[in-house]
């Protein structure tokens, strides 16, 4: 066995960074830490009304430093000497403009407060027009480069966001050498990178968000990019032609970061990947099982052996990419742009009077904080006791547009069937039900496109926080839901990759067998509600169709 024994896995979620330190030999978690992003939690640089969501690189740097140091503080000093690797999972597509040295523009004085110089978070939908332009070009003869990403290019993705930024802020274009995913920049930073031409791009984000495919020999032809806008051609040329899988090393921790973290320069830094993909590995994904990472949004992940996907193109999902989850298999991704975010929105709505600054005094502030922490739990509890009936309030879950099936960021949320007797728990139940209907639409799409779904695993924050949501999900999908035992699947998956990077295990599958924490429980569907939910699902589809028809 390798002399390395300990590994660190980091999960940069939407609202917080979660880090765990593991004994990879024993598959045991030794310590963990969670840090909120300071600027993000104050709402800085964001404007939800414009769907603008930006994160400052300093939030990531500070969160990473604090969370790793906290983990190390809790263990014996001998442990830190035997840390073999750090691997990281990040949201995506969450890219940023960097200069020729690979420095994010927001870290340069001239751009330090400019939201356009920051990471454009996955859920930012400011690039709808640019995504439409990419979709229009891809319909032209010889330009069909979207078949591996479900046939529609999303405004959440790399090229649409880059084009939008170059047009929206000319100053960015003057200094931006290349556009880099968060999942590629973090390993570059930790390994002391100072030349943007040497940034290693991960196969996962490249394939799912940037149209990279071995079948095209890399990116689509330069003509494709220049037909959209000549400036994109320049950035496509600079993208490079090589991608790396997450089980590989990006290099060693540089002296500056080793000192900052209190680790040695012998620690390897793994190639990054998108959080949900790493989470699926942490949740011990199996072929033909949908692994649902359920948090602020959902990502629905599957792995299928390559030979079974020959000639099969699943329409309306976020991609089918070789090696994107487990090296050697095709990774499929679908998802919902808002899941827990819909519940958070409702919570914030109810708390609006208390959050208003003009009312604030010490007591109101305390009450606000208490309710903030408790309200979702209370709503879960009350909603789970409500009787179910056919014409109860209903909702559409597209509060941040629709990611799958068939990406459409212009789709909107809806709440209907209200009366003077409708209560907050009634509306909460309708919202939860709509998010589960959204989940059902994805399963139905994958199956109708020819990929059999043999089981469903639930991982991520909500799978552990809300038995009520999990029960409704099981009822509405009419399938048992296997709930992962650990809440921190993305950080756990990152530890598994780290264990391969520093040669503790030879493959991700082997790491997963030795380090996985298994299933906590199986939530089974209640057959007595099947017919009712089938009828209400038909109603959900009907209102969704009406919205579509009204758009035309
Ligand atoms: N008791 C609860 N019931 C349902 N949803 C919850 C509950 N507590 C928190 N959430 C939701 O969980 C989401 C955060 O999920 P989590 O997996 O922890 O983070 P992330 O999505 O950033 O990785 C938030 O959107 C929040 O609304
Ligand atoms: O969009 C993707 C992956 O495509 C995710 O990174 C994004 O959904 C992250 O959401 P969470 O914060 O993990 O809910």
TrEMBL record:
<dbReference type="InterPro" id="IPR000577">
    <property type="entry name" value="Carb_kinase_FGGY"/>
</dbReference>
<dbReference type="GO" id="GO:0019150">
    <property type="term" value="F:D-ribulokinase activity"/>
</dbReference>
<dbReference type="Pfam" id="PF00370">
    <property type="entry name" value="FGGY_N"/>
</dbReference>
<protein>
    <submittedName>
        <fullName>Ribulokinase</fullName>
        <ecNumber>2.7.1.16</ecNumber>
    </submittedName>
</protein>
<dbReference type="Pfam" id="PF02782">
    <property type="entry name" value="FGGY_C"/>
</dbReference>
<keyword id="KW-0067">ATP-binding</keyword>
<dbReference type="GO" id="GO:0005737">
    <property type="term" value="C:cytoplasm"/>
</dbReference>
<dbReference type="GO" id="GO:0008741">
    <property type="term" value="F:ribulokinase activity"/>
</dbReference>
<comment type="similarity">
    <text>Belongs to the FGGY kinase family.</text>
</comment>
<feature type="domain" description="Carbohydrate kinase FGGY C-terminal">
    <location>
        <begin position="293"/>
        <end position="500"/>
    </location>
</feature>
<dbReference type="InterPro" id="IPR018484">
    <property type="entry name" value="FGGY_N"/>
</dbReference>
<dbReference type="GO" id="GO:0019569">
    <property type="term" value="P:L-arabinose catabolic process to D-xylulose 5-phosphate"/>
</dbReference>
<feature type="domain" description="Carbohydrate kinase FGGY N-terminal">
    <location>
        <begin position="6"/>
        <end position="282"/>
    </location>
</feature>
<keyword id="KW-0418">Kinase</keyword>
<keyword id="KW-0054">Arabinose catabolism</keyword>
<dbReference type="GO" id="GO:0005524">
    <property type="term" value="F:ATP binding"/>
</dbReference>
<keyword id="KW-0119">Carbohydrate metabolism</keyword>
<dbReference type="InterPro" id="IPR005929">
    <property type="entry name" value="Ribulokinase"/>
</dbReference>
<keyword id="KW-0547">Nucleotide-binding</keyword>
<dbReference type="InterPro" id="IPR043129">
    <property type="entry name" value="ATPase_NBD"/>
</dbReference>
<dbReference type="InterPro" id="IPR018483">
    <property type="entry name" value="Carb_kinase_FGGY_CS"/>
</dbReference>
<dbReference type="InterPro" id="IPR018485">
    <property type="entry name" value="FGGY_C"/>
</dbReference>
<keyword id="KW-0808">Transferase</keyword>
